[in-house]
């Protein structure tokens, strides 16, 4: 099974919202990323609508050629919107109003009751469900117990660490990926991945998809979208296009 690159388009929407303009358009960016070799597109409709707007989700769903992975929290409003979005995949994430970006993984132990309702509902709505979790075996067990087919391993701690601490975090990710697969979960990963740190995560056995946003947008400012996506594919060990 070959690894897939899913591009998170939130950061283009952030730029647009900073000036309350109609541009840059995250949908146009998503289509350009697809043409450059992205295998799927991810966005997070947050309750505070700080970047992606409801209409962006509708337009992404209508215009994408690959697939839309919608990140949503367990908030009833956001879950309701996810259920009618038509997205092909859902990633359930925690959401705090004051955070700059998603800080930690979902607490699948604590949220067990809500997840036992949300996971079947999202599946019924036609999407493959993944739960965004820290690389912690207890969280993986809880994710499997609520019936999620996928987890997305939070790579933020790995990305933020340096030296031997980074090696330890990579080992945690490797152990988590193995454990997840041993209990029947399929494995994606993401958060904080960039051109320099992505290769060891891409090489983890059993990881199917990486969700990457910020580093791609930041690099595309200098080299354009085609090169930014192509170079990321290469950094992941994939052909450039
Ligand atoms: N995966 C999840 C669940 C996220 O919330 C984010 C951030 O929006 C990403 C992946 C992508 O992170 P980054 O923008 O740091 O590449």
Summarize the structure.
The chain has 241 residues and is α/β, with parallel strands linked by helices. The chain has one domain: Alpha-Beta Barrel (TIM Barrel), CATH 3.20.20.70. The chain has 11 helices and 8 strands.
3D architecture notes:
This protein is α/β, with parallel strands linked by helices. It has one domain (4-235): TIM Barrel. It is built from 11 helices and 8 strands. The chain has an 8-stranded parallel beta barrel with strand order 1-2-3-4-5-6-7-8, surrounded by 7 helices. Helix 2 packs across helix 11, helix 6 packs parallel to helix 8 (163-182) and helix 10 (214-223) crosses helix 11. It starts with a strand and ends in a 6-residue tail after the last helix. The relative contact order is 0.14. The model has no long low-confidence stretch (mean pLDDT 97). Pyridoxine-5'-phosphate (PXP) binds at residues 8, 10, 44, 71, 91, 93, 101-102, 132, 152, 190-193, 211-215.
Q: Per CATH, which architecture?
A: Alpha-Beta Barrel
How many domains make up the 3D coordinates?
Answer: 1
**What's the average pLDDT?**
97
Total DSSP E strands: 8
List keywords for this structure.
single chain; 241 residues; alpha/beta; TIM Barrel; 8-stranded parallel beta barrel; 11 helices; binds pyridoxine-5'-phosphate
Blueprint (SSEs and pairs):
Elements: E1 4-8, H1 10-19, H2 26-36, E2 40-44, H3 54-63, E3 68-72, H4 76-83, E4 89-92, H5 112-124, E5 128-133, H6 137-145, E6 150-154, H7 156-160, H8 163-182, E7 186-190, H9 198-202, E8 207-212, H10 214-223, H11 225-235
Parallel strand pairs: 1-2, 1-8, 2-3, 3-4, 4-5, 5-6, 6-7, 7-8
């Amino acid at each position: 099974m070959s690894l897939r690159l899913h591009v998170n388009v939130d950061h283009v929407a952030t730029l647009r919202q900073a000036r309350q303009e109609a541009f840059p358009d995250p949908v146009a960016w998503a289509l350009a990323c697809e043409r450059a070799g992205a295998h799927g597109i991810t966005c997070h409709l947050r309750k505070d609508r700080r970047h992606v707007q409801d209409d962006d989700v509708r337009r992404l769903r209508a215009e994408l050629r690959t697939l839309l992975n919608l990140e949503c929290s367990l908030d009833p409003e956001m879950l309701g919107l996810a259920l009618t979005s038509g997205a092909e995949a859902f990633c359930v994430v925690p959401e705090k109003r004051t955070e700059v970006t998603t800080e930690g993984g979902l607490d699948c132990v604590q949220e067990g009751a809500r997840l036992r309702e949300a996971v079947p509902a999202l599946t019924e709505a036609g999407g493959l469900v993944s739960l965004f979790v820290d690389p912690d075996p207890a969280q993986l067990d809880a994710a499997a117990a609520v019936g999620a087919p996928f987890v997305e391993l939070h790579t933020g701690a790995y990305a933020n660490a340096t030296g031997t601490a980074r090696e330890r975090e990579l080992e945690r990710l490797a152990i988590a990926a193995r454990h997840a697969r041993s209990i029947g979960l399929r494995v994606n990963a993401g958060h904080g991945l960039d051109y320099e740190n992505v290769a060891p995560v891409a090489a983890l056995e059993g990881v199917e998809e990486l969700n990457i946003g910020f580093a791609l947008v930041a690099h595309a400012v200098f080299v354009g979208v085609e090169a930014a996506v192509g170079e990321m594919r290469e950094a992941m060990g994939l052909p450039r296009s």
